[in-house]
Amino acid sequence: MTNEKDINKETSKVEVSERHSPSSGEMEGASFPGEVHPTPTGGVLVTAIDDVINWARSNSLWPLVFGTSCCAIEMMSTASAKYDWARFGFEVARATPRQADVIIIAGTIVNKLAPVLKRLYDQMADPKYVIAMGACATSGGPFFYNTYSVVKGADHVIPVDVYIAGCPPRPEALLHALITLQKKIKSGLTREQIKMEKPEQSL
Amino acid sequence: MTNDELKIKLSELLPAITFEEGGQPIAADWLNVNVEPKDWAGFANSLKHRPELSFDYLFCETCVDWKTHLTMVYHLESTQYRHTVVMKSKLDRNKPEIETVSNIWKTAEFHEREIYELFGVNFLNHPDLRLLILPEGWEGRNPLRKDFEDPVNMVKL
Asked: What is the ipTM of this complex?
């Protein structure tokens, strides 16, 4: 991460100085392609490099091995040869949250499991993403009414990036959600970057 | 043994039992027997240990809340003769008590702990009767009873 920041700073200095020194008329022909975002530490992020980093991140998302009910069967099926999520860079399923980037909540979350899910999420390294797979993880699904033990949606416990409908969703739906997450990562900032930027924007 | 032979044999053993006719299609070929809770411990013991019966496999033990009463259900099979019998015992809903069978079929120990926490059935002489899965503090609140209420976690429909 330190290397990334250094590169960003160096590039940004060059870009910014170039941008401000010539007169505005000369700049019209070859304008700066990216956007410049000030950060609280005083550095400047150049979006073109973010695009490269986001592209790299989105194509190497390591899911956590975390399945709590029948959705997990569909998730395993998505990993199998027929659907093969390795085509999109998800094949390295990790059994430890320390090495995982995305947690696919494949199944029902009960009250007794909620603190465990929270701990797993906290143990994951940033940037981290969450997919709520299926009706149970989205809203409690078939266990919404008259159930004493089920959490009514995993977003009561941890923030969710992408929701999938279905009970359980087909592997195609999970692939679609994973590609949607890739698009989300490619299109912009991580949740942490958005958090860092917000106070600046409000000023 | 066929069901008719079992009927004769079990009636000889304990005349107080009654037989349930009909029932669900899947259970139609199993003999359904009603037994009083007070007779259960001794009867279960002879079901297992009589050589001609030798019901050595308790493959299901559960409870049903009928709102007016509770029913304990035991599914027994003999691995030697391959005959199956379903024993049912009606319990008082306000004071459900029945003798444990964990000393006869060891598997019943955990089944009875689960029935204890979900239905509140008190198993007499059980070696370790405490909650199995529910977190601490659930004693006395039995989630699988039909009149169970939990205003915090439950959305009523």
From this structure: 0.74
